[in-house]
Amino acid sequence: MEKEIKNTTPIAPDVYQPMGLNDEEYSKIVEMLGRHPTYTEVGMFAVMWSEHCGYKYSRPILKYFKKYKEAIEGEGLENAGIIDIGDGLGICMKMESHNHPSAVEPFQGAATGVGGILRDIFTMGARPIANLNSLRFGNLDDAHNRYLFEHVVEGISHYGNCVGVPTIAGEVYFDDSYSGNPLLNAMAIGILKTDEVATAGANGVGNPVMIVGSATGKDGIHGATFASVELGPDSESKRPNVQMGDPFQEKLLIEATLEALKTGYITGIQDMGAAGITCSTTEMSAKGNTGMSVNIRKTPLREADLTPYEIMLSESQERMLAVVEKGHEDEVAAVFKKWGLQAVVIGEVTADEIVRIYDNDELVACVKGKDLADNAPTYYLDTKEPDYISKVQNYDLSKLPEPNDYNKVFLKLIGDISIASKEWVYDQYDHMVQTNTTILPGSDCAMLRVRETTKGIAVTTDCNSRYVYLNPYKGAKIAVAEAARNISCSGATPMGVTDCLNFGNPEKPEAFWQFEQAVKGLAEECEAFNSPVVSGNVSFYNETPEGTIYPTPTIGMMGLLDDVDKRMTSEFKAKGDKIALISGVSKDANDYDALDGSEYIKAEFDLAVGNTPHYDTKEELNVQACIRELIDKRLIKSAHDLSEGGLAIALAECCINGKLGATFNIDTERPVSNTLFNEAQSRILISYDDRNVGEIKNICNKYSIDFISDGQVSSDEKVSISVNNKAVIDADLNEITDLYKNTIGKIMKY
Amino acid sequence: MYRVKVYVTLKPSLLDAQGKVVKGAAVNLGYDEVENVRIGKFIELSINENTKDVNTAVEELCSKLLANTVIENYKYEIEKE
Amino acid sequence: MKFGVVIFPGSNCDQDSFFCIKDVIKEQVDYIWHQDTDVKGYDCIILPGGFSYGDYLRTGAVARFSPVMQSIIDYAKDGGHLIGICNGFQILCEAHLLPGVLTANDKLKFICKYVNLKVENDTSDWTNLYKKGDVLNIPVAHHSGNFFAETDVIKELEDNNQILFKYCDAFGNVTEEANINGSVNNIAGIINKAGNVAGMMPHPERAVEDLLCSTDGINVFKSLVERMN
User: Fold this and answer.
1) Contact C16 A435 (CB under 8 A)
2) Which chains touch A (3 or more CB pairs under 8 A)?
3) Which residue, among A643, A443, A456, A431, has the nearest Cα to A559 in the 3D structure?
């Protein structure tokens, strides 16, 4: 058979440009190959060099992340994603966007988003133990946004529930910047034995290469390129790009893969996600410093007439590529067969680092794996601070009028769809299957027990993108801080981060400036919290003709609690318990109760203005160390961090979820609205038995934490807040519970 | 080859929740004249001619597998190609 | 006592049932593969929750014809103890080991949450450690849990004391509001006439440890163990 391709003719620009390649990139391909590429090769380069696969724009910025930098300069990203939790166990986690597919076909877009991220986890040899997701939509007064919201949630529910992986946490925000460009960031977590990590390198020359799982069809061809362009009016017509998911097949694939890995005969395995066989053959070769010779005609096909180009670029779901120790193909295939799945040998590993793709006898592509996988062109793009930044940051908030009825504002915030309970969403997700969920959705974070240990794993996702919009650097820091605070409020210690960076068109300097600033803030804060970014994903081009989304660097964080019996939840537990606000915020800071960026300003005045709320890393570290010690010593009964809506909303949430009333007084000389609704970070609302007050105060003192206590949990179904002992909020528990729990359901007519 | 078309429908006496939702959507679109929507399944079978008794085979398939006769009715058409 | 937990392709609560029996009930337990045909030696077989065969035609419709089910049908007819939880309940109805059928929830959405269940029968092999009228806190997680049977069948179930649990409010009132999925008469779990086969939509195996937020489900399994001993 041919070993080289000769006599190729130039590909016309009107062929490669629509695939996403520019003239310069085409020339670079010709230079690399020493000839013109074939049609199949051009398609392979285009998809592998898209931002989605090749990170050609984000790569220089991602070097702010210490682990990423170490990984790409040293050993490679493999295994970088595993967090050691002791007892010989490791946690791997990853988050990925499926924004564009979800915009055009929300049900399948969301479902396949979940499926893809799960495959990333179990191809590492880890059993998936949790799904999380971070969702953003435009406001629900728009019918199309309601349609997207309903079907994205249904897609996640359909896929996640069927594969039997609990969806235990996440977040949903609504803002008009996401109208028409919703965000679906799917995250998965897996557990594995640290000495049984599967690798993704094509190891061992002569070893057979097998394709495993579903047959290949025409779905999703050029999906990765699709993710790397802006959504336009014709995006709906791009529907053929969206892949169809089959969670039943995925469930079988999980069980079969984990069982096949146990045989010890699989030397390398990788999921087929974006860019399908192209991506898996070239990346596995690049990682193994090997090549591959593959006859793609042996690939099981759904339709017989697929061209080599289509087979190489298909993004059919629920498939994987595995390299198997020679002579043991049958044992591996038998495991897949037991689970009703196909495993077919399509080629073998070669020594020369070249990936050769044959269509039966015809050589249709002959490329160096590393040229596609590692040598995508890197661009250093311009940055420019957007004009809006100085405008919003210099906005004079003191001119805004003080409301005359705080109760009314309070009720408005409770029923604000971004604050209101997301029960309508998570009741549709099976969050208990696998029977490890020990903190259910609705608290600050979720927690899983780790079987056969005493440990608990806390997980959460977070990002207040309005803050990031107002100040990308500081807003990103707050996203990390808040995720960590959620973890600490359960008693666990933050251990690691995965992120999903959703931004606008990077070729616009303003969007790229937001990206660079946010990544810088994120990287610094992850180091401060000793929580390395172990994996991540970049999603650019989140724009519609109406504008750009808020820059949204979603944080997924995981923490560890050594004794799961000590886990803490947010709701009040018993009447008569005392309530205190513990605060790391220094009263010397002039912005300690500023309303910048708050939900209150947004809800009351429809403004997204100011800088971020008060935030200081040192204060945050202190308050988190303090709350963890209070929990560890079993001195408190509940802990809930203050976030959107400030003190007033935090108190209401503790009452609603605990089905108990409360009174709380706070003394201050500042405006009441600031006191009730400011979103200064580093503050936590606790409840406790009065017997422990001395010890609690001592621990707060040790960490320089303010202990502000003037309230208690009651059984009289009233939530009352007073300022300087004058009542400002006095609400009926049943009324706010109905508002909080049912607002979204009523909008969705459920 | 026999081409068999099987129609599985919910018994008329039972509430069709899906149909109700679709009817609501149709009315929302302005088609007030839509009075009722019932949703069922349409299944195509290809059965080779070696089968001894195609009618019995289809009848059994419908009653055992394709429909649950507690809640569903079925009918079918068999065409020979 | 020896339990068996069946694994169909697409089962996903098989491990939960297994761990429940092994770690909490502390009885012997094995998995049974869907292609096995020998189910001798078991004192109780559990058909677990999940999405057997993707539940693609109707829930439970394909699983009902898997090789193991033919043996299980014989096993049940011989009086063997058998419980179907969630998808297992759907399979038992499709296999006509229990009357009725489970159709899509009336609101057409998947529901996962803790619900209140009223104990209707406290004498069965599965519920004798509860007291009639007890209100249990046990989670559900299903898309098709809407129990339906013709009026005469329902009457027979009521008359023969074959209803184990009904959905109720926190105070034990069987109300329309507490009926989460549209089931006839709020029915959440039933037994066959002989009492050896049980089916329920709620997941008792998810409520067996303090860590899992409730232990109210434990007596479903303990009742049987007690009775068998």
Assistant:
1) yes
2) C
3) A456
pLDDT, one tens digit per residue, over C32-89 is 999 999 999 999 999 999 999 999 889 999 999 999 999 999 999 999 999 999 999 9
> How far are the Cα atoms of A639, A647, A661, A729 from residue A652, in angstroms, in the given order?
13, 9, 9, 11
Q: Which residue of B has its CA nearest to C181?
A: B17
Predicted pLDDT at A227: 60
Contacts of C109 in chain A (CB under 8 A): 154, 157, 427-428, 750
- Spell out which residues of chain B touch residue C104, defining contact as CB-CB under 8 Å: 17-18
The predicted pLDDT at position A232 comes to 62
Contact by Cβ (8 Å): A217, A276: no
> In the predicted model, what is the mean pLDDT of chain A?
93
**HEC profile for A364-431?**
EEEEEHHHHHCCCCCCCCCCCCCHHHHHHHCCCHHHCCCCCCHHHHHHHHHCCCCCCCCHHHHCCCCC
CATH number attached to the domain at A568-750: 3.90.650.10
ipTM of this predicted structure = 0.96
Cα nearest neighbour of A245 on chain C? C54
d(CA A576, CA A579): 9
Report pLDDT digits (tens) over C142-156.
Answer: 999 999 999 999 999
What pLDDT shows up at residue A52? 83
Question: What order of strands is seen across the sheet that includes strand A342-350?
Answer: A266-271, A319-324, A208-213, A342-350, A291-295, A354-359, A362-368
Residue B25: the pLDDT is 77
Per the structure, the count of domains in chain C is 1
Q: Could you say which of C27, C94, C120, C205 is catalytic?
A: C205
Q: Do C148 and B71 touch (CB under 8 A)?
A: yes
Q: Do C109 and A429 touch (CB under 8 A)?
A: no
Mean pLDDT, rounded, for A731-740: 97
Domain A1-58+198-376 fold: Phosphoribosyl-aminoimidazole Synthetase; Chain A, domain 2 (3.90.650)
Which candidate, A338, A441, A239, B24, places its Cα nearest to that of C7?
Answer: A338
- Per-residue pLDDT of C92-150, as tens digits, reads 999 999 999 999 999 999 999 999 999 999 999 999 999 999 999 999 999 999 999 99
Selected from 3.90.1150.210, 3.30.1330.10, 3.90.180.10, 2.40.50.100, the CATH number assigned to the domain covering A78-197+421-565 reads 3.30.1330.10
Confidence of residue A510 (pLDDT cuts 50, 70, 90): very high
Which among A158, A340, A428 has the least Cβ separation from residue C9? A340
β-strand partners of A501: A538, A553
> Does position A236 have pLDDT exceeding 70, yes or no?
no
**Predicted structure pTM score:** 0.93
**What is the extent of the structural domain holding B44?**
2-80
Sign of CA dihedral A592, A598, A600, A606: positive
Amino acid at A476: A
Cα distance between the two ends of chain A: 62
Contact list, C107 vs chain A (CB under 8 Å): 750
pLDDT of residue A239: 44
Residues of C with CB under 8 A from a CB of A: 9-10, 12-13, 15-16, 19-20, 49-51, 53-56, 107, 109-113, 139, 141, 143, 203, 205-206, 209, 211-213
**Residues A82-121: pLDDT tens digits?**
899 999 999 999 999 999 989 988 999 999 999 999 999 9
> CATH code at C185?
3.40.50.880
Pairing of strands C187-191, C163-168: antiparallel
Phi and psi for A113 in degrees, rounded to 5?
Answer: -60, -45
Output the pLDDT for position B15: 78
Please list the residue range(s) of chain A that carry CATH number 3.90.650.10. 1-58+198-376, 568-750
Annotated catalytic residue, options C86, C93, C142, C168: C86
